[in-house]
Design goal:
By secondary structure, the chain is of the alpha+beta class. It contains 12 helices and 35 strands. Helix content is about 20%, strand content about 30%. The chain is globular. This is Prolyl endopeptidase. It is found in: Cytoplasm, Cytosol.
Length: about 725
C-alpha cells in the first residue's frame, strides 16, 4: 500500500492524533501485561497511565452519568426526547457560563503562568533528553523509537547508523504518537499502534520489513496485539471502552482473518500477552476480582485456544512458561495475595485440562502487606519487583540453585519501569527507577554476578537538595497508613512552607509517583510534597485495596484525614498553606474530605475528577458501569449500598459551609468522566460557598475561588508534553 493510500485510509477512519513525547504523565489507558498498570514505552505500549484503572490486567474504567432506579415509571418516548433536548440545552448553557468565567479569570495569572512555563521548559530540556528510549534487541538487531520514528540498528553500531523503518510524518500524520510495537519472531513483520490524544481507540498498522518496508494491513479500533507465529497476528478490538473479541489474521499464502474468542460477560475485559519464551500466547479475560486464561500454542497457532483454569470468583491468575512447565501467579488460597505456583506436570503438547488449580504447587508467597509490582521470567531465573511500606526492592528466584535473593533498591526510588527483554535467555535485566523529583535512572541486575549496577548515562544534574521521609499515620480504626514526603533540605521553618498533598485510593492502583518536572520545580521553590497511600489503592497488596472499596470506601477518607493531620502535627506546613491534589477516581476521596473537613486545606486541585458516584452507578446503559460494581457496589439492587455511597459521595454531600478554593480541569471528549456531572458539581459547590458567605457577616469573610477549565482537546488518559505544559 502506498503512502497516499494509507493516509487516505486512516483519514477515512477519522483517525487523528498528537505525538506523545517522552514526558511522563498521570497514572493511560494501558494494555496490562501481567500485574498492574505499566507506563509502557513504545516497545510495550503508551508510556502514559490512566488514573481510573484497576490493578488487574486489561480492566477498564467506566464513564459516569445518572439514572433512575428500575422501579421508576418509564417515561413516554415523547417525554424522553423532551428531556434529552432540555438536558442538552442545560449542558450547553452551563458550559458557556464556565468558559466565560475561565476567560475572565485567566488574565489574572498571566505573568505567573509565563514564569512557570519558562521554568518547566528549562527543567524538561535539562532532564528529558538523557532518559533515552527503550531498546528491543533481537540477536544482532536493535529496534527503538525516537520522535515518532522507529529505527533499526545493529547492536554494536549505536544509533548513528540506524535505519528508519517507519515515520508518522512520512505517512502524513505528524500529530500521531506511537503507542505499541511488536516485531514478528522472524523479524519480517512489524505491527504498530497509533493513537490519538482525543480518543482511546488506536489503529494498528502492519508493515512488511525488508529493503523497502511496505504497509500490509491497517486494522482500526485495536487494543492489544501479539505475534503468535512469524506471519500470524492475534489482536483484540475496543468498542465503547469494552474489549471482548479476539481475532487472528495471517499474512502469507491464504491470507484471512477470523474471530477466535468472544467474552460474553460485560464485567470482563480481554487482552493478549505472549509468554517470555514465546511458547504460548495467552488470552486473558479479567474482571476487577476474577480472571480466566486461555492458551494458544505458538507452535500450532491455528488450533483452538485451551483453557487453563475456569474462572472462579475472587481468584486472579496470570501465566508464564519456562522449559515445558507453566508458572502461575495467582491469588488462589489464603491469604488472598499473589503467590507463585508451578504446575506439577510437563507440557508435551497443548493438552492442559489437567492444569486446573487442584494440580498447582506453591513455589513462593508474598510477605504480609507487600505489593507485587511486576515480575519477569528468564530462562534460569525469575525477578519480582516488590513494594513494602513505600520501599522498593526486588527478589530474584533462581531455578538452578532453588534460592531467593532479596535486593534493596535506592531509598529515594518510588517508581520502577521494566524495560523490554524479548530474549528470555539474556543474563541481565534492565529497568529504570524514579521518583516525583528524581529523573529516571537506568539500572541493571546481572544474574551471573548477582549484583545491581547503575548504568552510566550522559551527564545529568544530580538531585542532592531533596530530602525523602516516610511516615505512618494512625487512621480512625488504628490502621497505619504510609505517607511519602519530599522537601528541600535547605528549607527552614517547614510549618510556614506550602504543602501539596496527593491522594488516589481506588482500584488497587498505587499513587503515580513517577518523575514530573513540575514536582521538582515546587521543591526548588520551597514546597513540601506529600503522597498519602490510603486504603483502596494497592500500595500494600490486594488486601489494602479490598479494605478500601465498596462498603469500606469511607476508610480511605479517614486515612486521608489522618495523614493530613499528622503532617500538620509534625510541623509540615499548616491548613492555611495546604493544597490537596487528586485525579479521576481520586476525586472521590478528595471531594469527600472537602465536605467533611474543609478546614484542613486551603485549596484543592482536581483533574477529570469522579465526583458523583451515586448518580453514576445508577446509569446502567453506560458501557462500563456493570464491571464497576466490584469497586463501588450496586446501588440499584442494594438499598444499604445506596445509603452508604450517599454518605460519602462528594456531589451528594455539598452543603453551605466554608470551602477551600477549587481548581478543576475537565475534558470535553472524556469518555470516562462525562462533562455534565462535573459542570453540575461546580455549580452546586459554588452556590453552597456563596450561600455560606451570605449567611455569615464576619469581616473579611472567605469566599473561595471555584474555577473550572474545560479543555476541548485531550482525553482522560493521554497527555503530550505540550498539553501537560500548558495545563
Amino acid at each position: 500500500m502506498c503512502c497516499t493510500g494509507l493516509q487516505n485510509l486512516l483519514q477515512g477512519l477519522s483517525f487523528s492524533a498528537k505525538y506523545y513525547s517522552k514526558h511522563n504523565l498521570t497514572q493511560t489507558m494501558c494494555p496490562y501485561n501481567k500485574i498492574g498498570p505499566k507506563k509502557f514505552h513504545i516497545l510495550d505500549s503508551s508510556k502514559s497511565t490512566c488514573t481510573r484503572w484497576t490493578a488487574l490486567p486489561g480492566s477498564i474504567l467506566p464513564c459516569r452519568l445518572f439514572s433512575w432506579k428500575k422501579e421508576k415509571m418509564v417515561p413516554s418516548k415523547r417525554n424522553q426526547n423532551t428531556s434529552i433536548v432540555t438536558s442538552d440545552l442545560l449542558h450547553k448553557n452551563l458550559l458557556k457560563s464556565e468558559q466565560k468565567n475561565w476567560n475572565n479569570f485567566l488574565p489574572t495569572y498571566k505573568a505567573m503562568t509565563k514564569k512557570i512555563k519558562e521554568k518547566l521548559e528549562e527543567l524538561h530540556n535539562m532532564y528529558t533528553p538523557n532518559s533515552g528510549s527503550p531498546r528491543m534487541r533481537f540477536g544482532e538487531n536493535v529496534y527503538f523509537e525516537e520522535n515518532g520514528c522507529i529505527f533499526l540498528a545493529k547492536a554494536d553500531h549505536g544509533k548513528g547508523n540506524a535505519e528508519i523503518l517507519f515515520s508518522v510524518e512520512d505517512y502524513g500524520f505528524s500529530d500521531a504518537f506511537i503507542q505499541r510495537i511488536r516485531i514478528s519472531p522472524d523479524q519480517r513483520y512489524m505491527a504498530i499502534s497509533l493513537k490519538s490524544e482525543n480518543s482511546e481507540e488506536a489503529t494498528c498498522i502492519v508493515m512488511k520489513l525488508g529493503n523497502l518496508p511496505v504497509v500490509e494491513k491497517v486494522i482500526p479500533c485495536v487494543f492489544s496485539f501479539e505475534w503468535a507465529a512469524n506471519d500470524v497476528l492475534y489482536y483484540t478490538t475496543l468498542k465503547n471502552l469494552k474489549c471482548q473479541n479476539v481475532f487472528m489474521t495471517t499474512f502469507t499464502y491464504q491470507k484471512h482473518t477470523k474471530l477466535v474468542y468472544t467474552e460474553q460477560d460485560a464485567r470482563f475485559f480481554v487482552d493478549l500477552y505472549c509468554t517470555k519464551d514465546r511458547r504460548f500466547l495467552t488470552i486473558n479475560s479479567n474482571s476487577k476480582t476474577t480472571s480466566e486464561v486461555w492458551l494458544v500454542d505458538c507452535r500450532h497457532p491455528f488450533e483452538s485456544p485451551a483453557l487453563v483454569q475456569a474462572r472462579t470468583t475472587g481468584v486472579i491468575y496470570h501465566i508464564e512458561h519456562r522449559k515445558d512447565q507453566l508458572y502461575i501467579l495467582t491469588t488462589y488460597g489464603e491469604p488472598a495475595e499473589y503467590k507463585a505456583i508451578l504446575t506439577d506436570n510437563y507440557i508435551h503438547r497443548i493438552n492442559l485440562y489437567t492444569y486446573g488449580k487442584e494440580n498447582w504447587q506453591l513455589v513462593y508467597a508474598l510477605e504480609k502487606k507487600t505489593k507485587l509490582v511486576d515480575f519477569e521470567m528468564f530462562s534460569d531465573d525469575c525477578i519480582m519487583f516488590m513494594k513494602n511500606a513505600g520501599h522498593l526492592y526486588l527478589n530474584v528466584i533462581s531455578f538452578v540453585s532453588h534460592s531467593v535473593q532479596s535486593i534493596k533498591l535506592p531509598t529515594w526510588a518510588c517508581e520502577f519501569e521494566l524495560e523490554s527483554h524479548p530474549e528470555h535467555t539474556t543474563s541481565t535485566c534492565y529497568f529504570q527507577l524514579s521518583s516525583p523529583v528524581h529523573p529516571p535512572k537506568r539500572f541493571a541486575y546481572s544474574f551471573k554476578e548477582n549484583n545491581l549496577i547503575e548504568q552510566a548515562v550522559q551527564e545529568v544534574p544530580i538531585i542532592t537538595n531533596c530530602h525523602t521521609t516516610r511516615l505512618l499515620a494512625k487512621s480512625k480504626d488504628e490502621t497505619l497508613v504510609p505517607i511519602t514526603v519530599f522537601h528541600n533540605k535547605n528549607s527552614k521553618e517547614l510549618h510556614r512552607r506550602p504543602l501539596l498533598v496527593h491522594v488516589y485510593g481506588a482500584y488497587g492502583i498505587d499513587l503515580n509517583m513517577s518523575f514530573k518536572e513540575e514536582k521538582l520545580m515546587l521543591i526548588e521553590e520551597g514546597w513540601i510534597l506529600a503522597y498519602c497511600h490510603v486504603r483502596g489503592g494497592g500500595e500494600q497488596g490486594l488486601s489494602w485495596h479490598r479494605d478500601g472499596c465498596q462498603h469500606n470506601k469511607l476508610k480511605g477518607v479517614h486515612d486521608l484525614r489522618a495523614c493530613i493531620m499528622l503532617l500538620h502535627q509534625l510541623g509540615f506546613s499548616q491548613p492555611k498553606h495546604t493544597a490537596l491534589a487528586a485525579a479521576s477516581a481520586g476525586g472521590v476521596l478528595a471531594g469527600a474530605l472537602c465536605n467533611t473537613d474543609p478546614a484542613l486545606i486551603r485549596a484543592m486541585v482536581l483533574q477529570a475528577p469522579f465526583v458523583d458516584v451515586l448518580n453514576t452507578m445508577m446509569k446502567t446503559h453506560l458501557p462500563l458501569t456493570i464491571e464497576e460494581r466490584e469497586e463501588w457496589g450496586n446501588p440499584l439492587e442494594d438499598e444499604k449500598c445506596m445509603k452508604y455511597i450517599k454518605s460519602y459521595c462528594p456531589y451528594q454531600n455539598i452543603k453551605p459551609q466554608y470551602y477551600p478554593s477549587v481548581f478543576i480541569t475537565a475534558y470535553d471528549n472524556d469518555e470516562r468522566i462525562p462533562l455534565t456531572g462535573i459542570l453540575q458539581y461546580v455549580q452546586k459547590l459554588r452556590k453552597a460557598a456563596l450561600d455560606h458567605a451570605s449567611r455569615t457577616s464576619k469581616k473579611g469573610n472567605w469566599i473561595p475561588n471555584i474555577i473550572l477549565h474545560v479543555q476541548a482537546n485531550g482525553s482522560h488518559c493521554d497527555s503530550s508534553w505540550e498539553h501537560s505544559l500548558n495545563e
